[in-house]
Amino acid sequence: MSSTSELAPALWIRGGVQSGKTTRLVRELKTWMNQAQLPGAPAYPRRGELARKVLMMAANAENGQRLRERIHQTIGLGLPLTVTTPLGFFPEEVILFWPLIVQHLNIPGLMPVRLQAETEQYLALKLWSPELDTGVFRSISESAPLVVQNLINLMELAAFAGLPLTGLGELLVNRADYDPDLGAAVTQAILQWRSWCLARGLLTYGILLELYGQVLLPQAHYQAQLRQRYDAVLADDLDNYPALARDLFQVLLAQGVRGVFTFNPAGGCRLGLGADPDCLAGLADFCRVETLADLNQSVLGSQPQALVSYWLTDPRPQLPETLQSVQTPSRMQLLTTVAETIIQAVQAKTIAPAEIAIVGPGLDAIARYTLSQLLSQAEIPLYALNDQRPLISSPLVRGILTLLSLIYPECGRGLEREAIAEMLVVLFQEKAEIDPVRAGLLADHCFRPDPENPSLIGATEFSRWDRLGYQACQAYEGLRTWIQDQQNQLADVPRNPVFMMDRAIQRFLWSRNLNYNQILDLRKLLEISQHYWDVQRRLAQHSTASSPAYGDYPAVATFFRFIRTAPITTNPRLPRPIPAVTLATTFQYRNSRLKHRWQFWLDVGGPLWQNGGLVTRWQSPLLLRAQTGDHAEIWHDEIARLQRLLVDLGSRATEKIYLCHSELAVNGQEQLGPLLGLVELVNPVAEPSAPL
Asked: How many angstroms separate the most distant Cα atoms in the chain?
């Protein structure tokens, strides 16, 4: 243990993966509770009672929940604790102190409306369309949506770093050698977007972060409010925090707030997504530094960095028996062998499913589906960590949109017979009133496509309607009657499409036994739809219309296109099945701070490992406040990048690591990645004897 300043009110806990940093943080908080009051707090008759709250931060919400539970188990429930994340704290503070920001910027005092990511990109594309048409951003990308996404990300990264938006163009010119005209256009576009949103009370994530770092945090009144609200600040995993978090912590420490911070020198998995580990590492200069020894509880032992460096630099390293390989000619054989190996071990009770993880730098849909199907056949559940999928991939969502396109006029452009058949199957699936065959016949013979007024005609118009059967005819005619009733009501009073969505869901879907994923899909559909029209209502306040024109049917058709084409995703937060094998990308696995007895490194001989599991945004290396340091160097050193990934992953495996490699990738090409040499030196596992 070393000390930078024995009198510093903050403690800096430095250690590797699974070294006990979080445990030490909680123990320090418990010591405070058992000792005298925190500085500045009045005396209380009960020991450890605080006048103000403790601000607790974690790198993400999942880790924050685990940290809260650990504190409650160790200390109890009486502590006034605020558990949040940096990415959640900054926007909440901007909303809380919105009147102060309005006064400072002299902008309209409208109640702020937060834009979701999909709506943000949609509106920014419309605002920047004249500039995009000129081709000034062509050197960024030929795709207009990709240009918009890159500019939005650039704004967010600058806000994360606490850098002023006015200097972005100069940054691109000086550090990335872009043309000065492009730099000026980027700055102008981002400032135009910021001004346009603030004038309408619309707040994006990037604008919220920029307002916090450039407007709110520097104000003396806000800093005084922080001191009045918090007696202590504790932050776990500072290596995944943005530079803006350091500004906040320095303000708190300068006011005498006590602090505890944990830092993993080999971490920083969010580097490239806003995290600035080298900048946060400088906060240790204001703290007492305590270094924890690496615990010898993983496959890599007590010196993981030295061991991995030896593996990557020695031409023929001696590899431990804890490393084994699974090698096959094709990718399909690899996935099958991995599943068979897991099934054999679980059935032999060698290991439980919850103690196994399958990780890789990139997981395609084929791997997810194949592993899920093979393991489920052996009644072994697979938990895909943070599995996101497009909202429009849900048949229920597509069916509801198709149904509404039949109700609202001028919404039939692009409506095809296949969509009508799918809608009929989805709406009458529970009782099998209309099966796929009959749905296809009805769509072929009873659907009249029309851009203005598509319609369903009577089943008897089909010359062989007797082939449909009584049950299908009754269900189909009931649907036609319901559609006609809704059209008659629309003719009298135009209704919000969200209201009509909810009515359709209640009529056709809610009575059935929907699973959790389906409920989440429908909820997301209603939420994003309501958000879309809330934004339209706010935009209407700056136009001649006083409210969204639900009777403006081209606007409704535009809304339907938005739902179908926008990159809207659902993230089903299913409770983790116990026991279950975990499937995750290397980034997801590290970000969730998981550990398992066995790890299967998928496609370990492939080229994706070359990137070291780094997930980056456009020009993210330029927007690090600390341009030098251990983490900054990994942008230019592939070996260091790969070593950092292997150390972090390997330290989370306590018993065995399987290097899984197929000679041919999923596209049929030969795999020649940076870890192929290790695979060839490891003895392959015996062929599983238990068939699937």
From this structure: 92
- Residue 194 covered by a domain: yes
CA 186 to chain centre: 26
Preceding omega of 145 cis (within 30 degrees of 0): no
Confidence of residue 296 (pLDDT cuts 50, 70, 90): low
Q: Report how far apart, in Å, the C-alpha atoms of 217 and of each of 159, 195, 424 are.
A: 13, 20, 55
Q: What is the mean pLDDT of residues 162-178?
A: 86
Domain annotation covers residue 100: no
Question: Alpha-carbon distance 277 to 583, whole Å?
Answer: 27
Scanning the structure block, which residue is given the tokens 């980034």?
587
- Provide φ and ψ at 322, rounded to 5°: -70, -10
Judged by DSSP in three states, 540 sits in helix
Q: Quote the CA–CA distance of 443 and 424 in Å, as a whole number.
A: 9
CATH number at 242 reads 3.40.50.300
The rounded Cα 113 to chain-centroid distance in angstroms is 21
Residues 505 and 406 in one domain: yes
Q: Which phi and psi angles does 249 have, rounded to 5°? A: -65, -40
Identify whether residues 423 and 528 lie together within a single domain: yes
pTM value is 0.85
Please say which residue of 553, 570, 587 terminates a domain: 570
CB 353 within 8 A of CB 579: yes
Kindly provide the b/e burial profile for residues 272-284, where b requires at least 16 CB atoms within 10 angstroms of the residue's own CB.
bbbbbbbbbbebb
- SS3 string of 113-162? EECCHHHHHHHHHHHCHHHHHHCCCCCCCCCHHHHHHHHHHHHHHHHHCC
Residue-wise pLDDT tens digits, 18-43: 888 888 988 888 887 776 444 444 43
State residue 516's pLDDT score: 79
- Among the listed residues 114, 60, 69, 115, the one whose alpha carbon sits nearest the alpha carbon of residue 88: 60
First to last CA, the chain: 53
* Axis crossing angle, helix 516-540 with helix 553-565, rounded to the nearest 10: 130
Same domain, 603 and 475: no
**Number of other CB atoms surrounding residue 43 within 10 Å:** 8
Domain containing 283 equals: 10-91+215-291
